[in-house]
Hints:
This protein has about 600 residues and is mainly alpha-helical. It has helices at about 5-10, 10-40, 65-75, 80-85, 105-115, 140-150, 155-165, 190-200, 215-225, 230-235, 260-270, 285-295, 300-305, 325-340, 350-360, 370-380, 385-405, 405-435, 440-450, 455-470, 475-480, 490-500, 505-510, 515-525, 530-545, 550-555, 560-570, 575-595, 595-610, and strands at about 125-130, 210, 275-280, 345.
Amino acid sequence: xxxxxxxxxxxxxxxxxxxxxxxxxxLGAITMIYPFxxxxxxxxxxxxxxxxxxxxxxYFYNDEALFRKYVEARYNEESGRMMENYxxxxxxxSEVSVPKIYNPTLYADWKEFSSQKRESYGTYDFxxxxxxxxxxxxxxxxxxxxxxxxxxxxxxxxxxxxYGTGAQSWEEIAIEEKEILSRNFMSSQNGYLGRFQEFKxxxxxxxxxxxxxxxxxxxxxxxxxxxxxxxxxxxxLKTRYQSWDQIYLSAECPPPSDPLRxxxxxYVRDNLNIxxxxxxxxxxxxxxxxxxxxxxxxDLLNTTWNTAYDSFEELNIPERIPDSGAIVDDLSFFVxxxxxxxxLKILSIxxxxxxxxxxxxxxxxxLNFPMQQIEYGTxxxxxxxxxxxxxxxxxxxxLDQMLNDSRSLRNTLIYCLLSILLAVTVNPLAAxxxxxxxxxxxxxxxxxxxxxxxxxxxVIGIPNFLxxxxxxxxxxxxxxxxxxxxxxxxxxxxxxxxxSLPKELYESARIDGAGEFRMFWQFTLYLSKPILAVIxxxxxxxxxxxxxxxxxxxxxxxxxxxxxxxxxxxxxxSLSVGYAALTIAAIPTLAVFVFFQNIIIKGIVIPMEx
Length: 610
């Protein structure tokens, strides 16, 4: 029945009032939907675009924004690696842009070059893209873990025994390759690192981030020395460079007249990883003399190197440099202080690229390593797969966490079912007693129940925790469900509904010999289905979203509920992953409202009409 009749609704004032009420309600709905839509939007983002409060992520429709995210993921969210490869052109991922002029021919030349040279480059020549990140499981990290699980039949113990590790969970299995070009960086072909090298070398070409020594030379030496000021460099070195990308690292030491000679020598001797340096054959004699001076006897060198030379004269410069050990240390020792600069040569992809262009075009138009052109060409070729990866990445991590640690899902399901069962049992019994037997202090009891709603949950949580601790119920389902088994508002609502039921029904049932329990079970509860549905939904909602109390009384990880698990995930995951977790967690409550909205409305309207 409408509050305002047909005659009243014809009045202009009433119409304006009705329109205003509907407008206010609509605005109120928007204020609730808008933050939720922002959260969903943020769940598809990453660090490079999380600060933009847009309802639709920009990379959905903007290729430059997608390219920016691609570069961020490609460099495993390490801006320093990007700065090295780009020669300091960008200081952060947010500055990355598409090339002003894209040259498809250059990218085709790069694909030809990389296909020819693929097998000759090893783990020190490129990073594996998207194999680690800040608080997210990127593509190649997921693929590696999936592969390792399959190889070890999903048994973490088997993995630990095979590789001599002590991982407590599959999540701990990750490698962060940093500072590959540093003198101190060492990899290994044995154990888990060796397995990672195999995975890395087998990755597709477009998952390789080849190292640009030109950019590393600029970024680690010239750029900080001159404060990023190219004009200052030109003044002091008497050069005429128009941009930083005109500077490149030559394969051999520049002549004395070259202003970059001293910088080249310092970079090669002190900074560059030894695996990118080769000692020329004419330096064999100096190398032998340096080792003879260091070891004194050939026996000591043989013991250290695990070799069997008869004299230092038999010693040759190693053609293949091992990952680590005494040979690497001695090569570094010789390069650092004993070798003449002209006896050293740099092995780099950028120099190989220049040689390739010189052979193909005789006079190549550009000798600089075209990192941005290469990566933009790769981006255009695989744009669909790249966009799909960013769409699913955050949600894949959340689902992986939830499904692999399924205890939280099981605990939440049991918790919700127990809460519903107790809510539709304890509260109706209390309300029925107050309604049917009308004790002398019924209204005072109801008032006492209602007063419990005046205290915040945090205040009630303290005595509840102390009581449960004394009863030794912590870290049990009883600790979760008992404090909320009786709810003052539910009892008040049920009592009001029971009071509205016809008394004649109970009198007839009593005459026919029905007992009190039968009247409660067969008549009262049967007629109270709408309100009981509301109670059940309320109990489900309260249990499902309960975080603080569940976190306090069930600190044992085996008793964590979904909300506690999501909280723990958000402490170590990226912000976008946290939003993805909250979005997934909102689905059950949204589904409950969508599918049970008729019951909810009946439960609200019927008691009011009564």
